[in-house]
Amino acid sequence: MPRTIKIAAAQMGPVHITSPRTEVITRMLSLLHSASSLGAQLVLFPETAFTTFFPRHLIASQASLDSYFEHGDNLPSSPNTKPLFDAAKELGIDISVGFAERTEEGEGYNASVYFSAEKGAVIAKYRKVHLPGSKEPFENPDAVNQLEKRYFQPGNLGFKAFRTPGLVAGAAKKGSEELGAGKGDPIMGMMICNDRRWAEGWRIYGMQGVEVVLCGYNTAGFAPDLWGTRKVMTPEEAEVDAVFHHKLVMQSNSYMNSCFSVSAAKAGLEDGKYDLIGGSCITSPEGHVLAEAKGKGDEIVFAEIDLEDCRQGKEKTFDFERHRRIDQYGLITEQTGVVEPELLP
Ligand code: CDV
């Protein structure tokens, strides 16, 4: 039986350091309404969607830094973000959105939430595990900094998949007669930007039967200080490569875990200077791109997907129960860095 969902990535053009929060929310509402007019049931917004991607800046004042953060559990009620959640509830659309989270204890996380329109509540939260960059800025004054390790703690909620109510008709529930994998409410997982480059998170979601992975991102188009300069590239060549790598990891990891993925970028020249790639896309369990952004501005990327399409991979090529060999995978959790084989005599 088909289990279809109409799904959208809300790509956002640049959000500048000077952009008033109200202006950003207005743009997000406009994207939500556009997605609604296409019949979307779920809309994904980018990483740190409500503000500029501030970890590129060295921010000295605590008050200024705090202005980029929200209290995680208050998003649906905070004046800065409430209008988006109110509209999602009113339109009956689930949303997932990235934000900088400040906890009661004062810790900072690069986080995202999943809001269920049916429940009228946040039903899942994710904190970015793989924080790229450094604590200190680069010495090169022209470098694009990536100070996530300075402002955020590594995520501590793991990669926990969750079910999303109200999206597919006739979903099996606890105690249903129609039991078995692939019959219940959709299984989703969230990751944030750099996480998508790491196979480990995808596999942990795959092992929970994930059907849709949601990933918001801010990826620089040209950042040689961060990436290395072994191959000298023009900014244009570097951006082509960055988009290639983005799609490569979304497509290959969707395939290897037999799931759909949705990715939503913040794109364009943020703060008038820092180029972010676009390339928001929706990929299938066979690794194909089903829909993708055409430009680098505010744009809805939309597809109707059938979760039943996950079954073939999950039951054949990537039937984990039959084919995985965990006795051979020990190094994955025993060792963090690389230990090369001994040198030859
Ligand atoms: N926001 C990010 O996590 N950006 C990283 C860059 C810095 C490599 C990314 O993986 O796109």
From TrEMBL:
Query: Would the keyword Hydrolase turn up in this protein's UniProt record?
Result: yes
Ranges for domain CN hydrolase come to: 5-307
Query: What SUPFAM superfamilies does its record include?
Result: Carbon-nitrogen hydrolase
Signal peptide positions (record)? none
Please tell me whether the keyword Nucleotide-binding is annotated for this protein. no
Q: Which keywords does UniProt give here?
A: Hydrolase
GO molecular function terms attached to this record: hydrolase activity, acting on carbon-nitrogen (but not peptide) bonds, in linear amides
Q: Which Pfam families match?
A: CN_hydrolase
Q: Which PANTHER family does this one have?
A: NITRILASE C965.09-RELATED (PTHR43674:SF12)
Q: What is the protein name for this chain? A: N-carbamoyl-D-amino acid hydrolase
Which source organism? Answer: Lachnellula suecica
Q: Which gene encodes it?
A: DCAS
